[in-house]
């Protein structure tokens, strides 16, 4: 079964949105198989967002992502990488449709509530960056 890495960003943790966001993925039929509240180190955020190094928004992105706790998760389900990205909505909340997570909860590109892996390769890479094998449970 396909797995993906989802992370509730510091803005959403601060705003008390963990429960509402998790509820959407549960309602969709996906299974949470690992999860933890954590503060990301500078080293980890650089590895996670390595593709964005050098972009004008990179400094703001990494500072924001280490500014408070995130809720890091691994979810499992059919076609979950593509479907979870649909549920999140566009990166820019100005373009994210109402009914999507960013469309409903975010107003700004650099405070956009949730991260989700965008490909099977990135899902595996990100899962391995954030989680060890002994942190997974079977949740059928
Ligand atoms: P993530 O799930 O966080 O990876 O977002 P994404 O996959 O929808 O977008 P992408 O990976 O391209 O960008 C990662 C993050 O960098 C985004 O969530 C934004 O917060 C930020 N970002 C990307 N492009 C821009 C930009 O043009 N301007 C600003 N301010 N932030 C950007
Ligand atoms: Mg991305």
From TrEMBL:
Function field: Major role in the synthesis of nucleoside triphosphates other than ATP. The ATP gamma phosphate is transferred to the NDP beta phosphate via a ping-pong mechanism, using a phosphorylated active-site intermediate.
Entry's localization field: Cytoplasm
SUPFAM superfamilies: Nucleoside diphosphate kinase, NDK
Family annotation (InterPro entries): NDK-like_dom, NDK-like_dom_sf, Nucleoside_diP_kinase, Nucleoside_diP_kinase_AS
Organism: Sporolactobacillus shoreicorticis
GO molecular function, one term: nucleoside diphosphate kinase activity
Residue positions of the active site: 115
Binding residue positions for ATP: 9, 57, 85, 91, 102, 112
Protein name per UniProt: Nucleoside diphosphate kinase
Gene3D superfamilies: Nucleoside diphosphate kinase-like domain
Reaction(s) catalysed by this chain's protein: a 2'-deoxyribonucleoside 5'-diphosphate + ATP = a 2'-deoxyribonucleoside 5'-triphosphate + ADP; a ribonucleoside 5'-diphosphate + ATP = a ribonucleoside 5'-triphosphate + ADP
Residues of the Nucleoside diphosphate kinase-like domain: 1-138
Keyword Nuclease applies: no
Assembly notes: Homotetramer.
